[in-house]
Amino acid sequence: MHHYQPQDILIERGEENAPVVRRVLQRLPQLPVRLVDRGSRPSTESLVDPFGAGKKTLLFTRNRSRFLEHCPAGTPGLVCCNYLVVSLISNCPMDCSYCFLQDYLANNPLLTVYTNVDDLLGELAAVVDRQPWKQFRIGTGELSDSLALDPLLGFSAELVPFFAQRDNVLLELKTKTDCVEGLLELDPQGRTVVSWTITPAEITEAEEHGTASFAERLDAARQVERAGYRLGFHFDPLIEYPDWQAGYGRTIERLFSAIDPRHVAWLSLGSLRLTPALRATMRRRFPHTRLLSGEQVRCADGKWRTFQPRRVKMYRTLSRWLRRAAPSVPVYMCMETAPVWEKVFGQAPGCDKDLAHTILSPSLTDPATIDAP
Amino acid sequence: MPSTLPAVGLYAEQKRLSQATLARWRSWPTTDQQALLTVAQELRLGENHLRDFLDWLEEIVLRDGGSIAAVLQQPAVRRALKLGRSRNDKLKAVKDALRRLRYPEIARLEHELQTCVKALALGPQVRVAFPPAFEGDEVTLEVRVKSAKDLDAVVSRIRQRLTDGTFQRLFELLDEA
User: Which of A3, A10, A315, A319 could form a disulfide with A59 if both were Cys (CB 3.0 to 4.6 A apart)?
Assistant: First the structure.
C-alpha cells in the first residue's frame, strides 16, 4: 500500500519540541511547516471536499481533555462489550466510503496528532493500576486507524511496552494497513492484539480507498503473529451485496489457511451502519458507491442498517463459518440489540461484564453444530 | 458533463427546490433528467418526495445498472402512473411501485407476511402488526371485542391457527428472510 505523506504540517505553538513532532520533522524534512496559535486552524470550509482536504494537513496539538473514553457502541438499547478507547490521532489518512468520520469530523477534519503521549499513559496507569483485579480492553482505532501513521509517528513503540508491563489490560491496535514494521522489534508480552478489518477483496478494492489489500493485510498479520502478537479480525462492516456468501466464504477460507486460530484473540461481526448525515455525505463524496443500494432501513438508534432478517442471516452464516474455522475463538457482535443476539447466538449476554468476560476468556464451541462455508 | 434541460431549472424554480436537489438532478444524463421531469410534473413532486425519487432511482441504477429513464419505464411504474385516481393516490401508487423495485427483498417479505396474515383469517376484530422496518422480534396482535362471547370466538380462532401451524409459518417467515 502507499504510505501516507502529508502536504504540509501545522504545529501549535509550544509543541515544537514534543518528541513526536521532532521525529516527524526529522523524517519529513522537506515539508512546509507552520506554527499556529492554540485553537487557530486554517479553514477548509470553502473547499469542494473539506473532509478530503483535511487529511492532507498534519496538525500537532495537545489533547486538553480526557483521553480514556467508553466506546460509543455503549448506546442504550445495544449490547455493549465494555470496550474503552483512547485517541492519539483524529481523522485517518485513508478514505473508506463508509467511514463514520466523514460525518463525525465534518467540522474538524484536519488530521490531528496529539503530542502529549505521557499524559495519556499517566491517565491509563491511574485507571488500570488502581483496579488490578479488573480486566480492561483498550483500543486506539476509534477516531483513526491505529497503525496508518505509525511509520511516521512511532506511537506503538511507546504504547506496546506500557501495556506489556500490565497483566490486567489488553491494547488493541485496529488497522486496515500493513504498517506493522514498528511492531516487529517490540515484545508485547501477550498484551497487545493487532486486529484487522476484513472485507472481501472486491469490497476492499471498491470501497476502502487507500487501504492495504486483503493479501497485504494477511501478510502483515502473519508477520505480527510470528513476532508474538495476538490477532483480531473484525468483519465490520458486513457488506450486503449480491455475491456476499461467496465473497465472505472465500475470505474466511483464505484467512484461516494463513493464520493459526490459536493466535486469534477475538473475531467480531457488525452490520454496516450509517447515520442519515453520513448517507448524504457518501452520496456526495462517493456517488458511485454501491453501499447505499443495499436493503437498509432506519433503526431505533437513527442509523440505517441492512434490514434485520437479512443481517441476521448474514451474522448466522458468518458466525457458523468462523466458529468452524476457529472453534475456540470468541465471536461477538458490535452495536446490535439483544433480540438480534438471541437470534444469532441463541442468547444475549446478561450484562456488559458477561460479554467482556466472554471476549477475554475464550470458551469452546461444539464444532458439530457448525456448517461448512 | 451532462447538459442541463431548461425545463428542469424552471420546474425547480416553481417548486423552490434546494440547490443540492437541483444539482443532483442536473448531474444525470438529459434523457434521465427528462424522464423524471415528466413524472415530477405529472405528480407535482415537491422537495421531499423528489428527494426520495432521486435516492431510489440512483440506488436502483447503481445496483442493477441501466438507466433512470428505463426504471421509470418499468411496467409497475407505468401502470401506477396511469391510474385514474387523485394526485395523492397516484403518487402513493408510484412511490409504492418504486419502493418495491428499490427494496425487492423487503417487499417480498411484506407480501408473504400479508398472505400469511390473510391465511390466519382471524377476522376484523384482530389486527396483526410487525415491528417497524422489521427491527425487533415482536409481532403484535391487537384484539377488539365487545363481549366475552366475542373474545372467546377470537381466542378459539387464534388457538386453531396455533395448532394448524399458520402462526408458526408467520414467525418462520420473519426469521428466514
Answer: A10
